[in-house]
């Protein structure tokens, strides 16, 4: 059987300036039992996509690889009659951490979900990664309780806006932070109870404001995809028994924690890797996905998309992400 190919937005060598990126033909797997071929209609970008092109993410795909951690499309071929899906089904999917910014992809059927009927392909492509991360972080790892004060950093990005929406849905009082007043106004309209600009005279500063907003106690749960100075300031405004969730390091620096802080203040620092959580706990992983999919189908969750780029402008989309211009999600329309 001859090798089949599809066109994708491919990283051929690692670089900080995008010089290793281009459109290329990439091999596509044969459709075997329990696998499905999808004609991709949309894919979304996440910050790890940028890090992977630079070799700075924990997942380091073998070069060359197509970018894109998640997408949505139409099933074009199934591997067996017993498959959960059939040709023509509209689906959304995760993609092994890469490969969604392409015309086609072959995946195990277990990695696919039916697209919510109310979602466009673009919304479906922007959904799974950020909401699964928020759910695993806040509910599974953070044990968020109704009425608690939830501090969401990087609240103007995709994972941040998902945490704001999910936190409100689970009854938290949400304090959202960012570095742009204009973007924070949008997050406020998204459901945040309070908004805080973390920059003061060019320096990261928010502990006093958070303390004032929580009657001097500090935040019960802190959701931190930023790291660096934001993490350092967070340990100074967390409540006794609080949970500081380490989501990522979009700020560029990985902090060191003086362990006397969690000792004296009795708080926990918890790492969150939603995908790995599902791999280590397959039954719970499936349950997590079912829960957020059901919430989407009930109209309770919907990703905020700030800009849609065409497939041909995938590089522009990645630069837009790097320049921190986005609020919510950036999506690539492939159809």
3D shape: globular
Radius of gyration: 20 Å
The first-to-last residue Cα distance is 28 Å
- Report on the biggest sheet: 7 strands, mixed
Q: How many distinct domains? A: 2
Question: Mean pLDDT score, rounded?
Answer: 94
The secondary-structure class comes to alpha/beta
Question: What name does the CATH topology of the largest domain carry?
Answer: Quinone Oxidoreductase, Chain A, domain 1
Query: What is the total tally of β strands?
Result: 18
CATH class of the largest domain: Alpha Beta
Helical percentage: 25-40%
Give the arrangement of secondary structure elements:
Elements: E1 4-11, E2 21-28, E3 35-45, H1 47-54, E4 65-66, E5 70-78, E6 90-94, E7 104-108, E8 112-114, H2 121-125, H3 128-141, E9 149-152, H4 158-169, E10 173-178, H5 181-190, E11 194-197, E12 199-200, E13 203-204, H6 207-213, E14 219-224, H7 229-234, E15 238-246, H8 260-265, E16 268-271, H9 274-280, H10 282-297, E17 305-310, H11 314-322, E18 329-333
Parallel strand pairs: 9-10, 9-14, 10-11, 14-15, 15-16, 17-18
Antiparallel strand pairs: 1-2, 1-4, 3-5, 3-7, 3-18, 5-6, 6-8, 12-13
Helix pairs in contact: 3-4, 3-10, 9-10
